[in-house]
Write a structure and sequence with these properties.
The structure is a homodimer of 347-residue chains.
Chain A lengths: L2 H6 L5 H25 L5 H12 L5 H13 L4 H25 L3 E2 L2 E2 L1 H28 L2 H23 L8 H27 L7 H28 L2 H4 L5 H4 L5 H9 L2 H12 L5 H13 L2 H20 L7 H19 L3
Amino acid sequence: MKGWQRIFIGKRWEHEIVSTLDRLAEPLSAVEELLWEAVESRVESVSRMARHLLSAGGKRLRPALTLLSAWMAGSITQKAILYAAVVELMHTATLIHDDVIDKAVTRRGKATVHTIWGNESAVMCGDHLYASAFSRLAEDGDIRVIRAMADASRRVCEGEILELELAYRLDLSESDCLRVAQLKTGALIGAACQVGVIAGVADGRNPQRLADALRHYGCLLGVAFQLVDDVLDMESTEETLGKPVGSDLLEGKITLPAVWTIAQLGPEERERWWRLAAQRHFPEQDAASLARRAQETGQLDRVRAFAGRIARQAVSYLDSYDGVDSDRRWARDALRDIADYIVKRRA
Amino acid sequence: MKGWQRIFIGKRWEHEIVSTLDRLAEPLSAVEELLWEAVESRVESVSRMARHLLSAGGKRLRPALTLLSAWMAGSITQKAILYAAVVELMHTATLIHDDVIDKAVTRRGKATVHTIWGNESAVMCGDHLYASAFSRLAEDGDIRVIRAMADASRRVCEGEILELELAYRLDLSESDCLRVAQLKTGALIGAACQVGVIAGVADGRNPQRLADALRHYGCLLGVAFQLVDDVLDMESTEETLGKPVGSDLLEGKITLPAVWTIAQLGPEERERWWRLAAQRHFPEQDAASLARRAQETGQLDRVRAFAGRIARQAVSYLDSYDGVDSDRRWARDALRDIADYIVKRRA
């Protein structure tokens, strides 16, 4: 079962699920085709690296959001398919660079690009995907979309750098954590929805209001998504997650579940954490033990509930759309389902 | 003395040099101002890293080419200044990633970004510069320029990856070397000239022919520039170059001077090189000795002469422009001077 299909499985209205899946299946495979075509290069190893990544699959959450946003705005046009592919290309570029930075060994169950081809090629392959994405957008020529995507990728970088800057900072506030999530994850998901609206709207109509609303929806959805990711990093077992429990901590990343759990510790334990932070090294054992504590003291549930509130806030932006057409209501309901899925998902 | 000023020093016509310098001084400092402004970010360490790089200076060859191209096409407009800054931002992004890849310790006499802030931040800082450059272009809104720049940065990545792919390949042909240089260096310099023309042309006129001509000029100029860079890597002493002689070889990069010098070796020595290549490691001593051989056997002069022919080919594209206006002839002469300088320069 494909990742994006999982989103709609287990919902109450069986026939409605089927119809959502049906409607997304065809455009999503068109996106897939475009992705494979876009990474072709006259330099053989460029194509090889990109194909390796694409073949690992992934949820394709961002393209699905672009398509549903287009659908909600009007219809899934050729442009919507193009923008969905571009969004995924940019996301993939970020993943490659992330994996180099985090020294990750596997991604989506496959060896990471840099472990096979080396850091050098991996960095350049990421750059190439960025540049290819912008080339595609430049060919298309809609300056609003180029603006949105350039802006989003700038924010993603800012988020990644901010996160590095805040590494080992146990005194992070809730709003620091939210700011990182907003930049690192929210910005691109927001843009994915925004450009979907631009692509889907019928000529002549001004989609500004809906585009803004869906950008807000996407940004908040991204924040919720990131918070649940942070929870999963502490909640899962090594088998289901494919990396050690508490691996964020091993890289010095202080996430909201960590902040809240550390706040609950006794003074002696807290002192130990500060001491480790000063050495800029959290041993695997401590990371695993904090993850256990987070679970036992209910902090993980608390963060998930918090993510749920943010997701509901995201959904509230959908309600500003007042379409009568039942077709478009359908897209809106699917976007609601995704918000729901994102909070509830397990590794 | 600034790098770009060096280009015009030592020319025959004293008063003409002064006037070229005068004419470029003001727009180049406007470019500089824009560069510093463009790297500002709400994330403090993003700005700090970028400012560190910018303060190291550099020749600013690419912005000078953009400005002169604009001048040749009409005049140095605000857009020309913007595009010149964008070109330099993209070039700077490439340098950061290059330094991470090459594990370079210094750049332009200052510690490299990754040695101070770590590889993680350096990769992200490069990404951020790319994204900021595209953001600026998106704000400006000229789709032809976005297309040219996206295309160029795609090629630059292809060139870098091709070079990695061809590492330790002693059987490189002359055309392999030229292809790497064309992608890695020529593409961006070609685009720098092309977008200069677009910026400089008066409204209503179609700059296509001149833009194409100057793009060709820039591409070939870039190839010549790269070949001379490859010569300098073998010709200079460690003191003037700031890195070991033959450092390209130490990274496995097979440049044209190396190809031609190895072809001149006796069978026993060639066998030794093949053996080292198979181990993917050229010891420092061998690299230095090959560099000496390249110099002694006249291969460095031969490559420089070859670069000279390519530079003359570049200049021939300038002649397709038939301006009567003496002001514009001036810009053309300056572009000729740069081609001249590029071939003759010493480290």
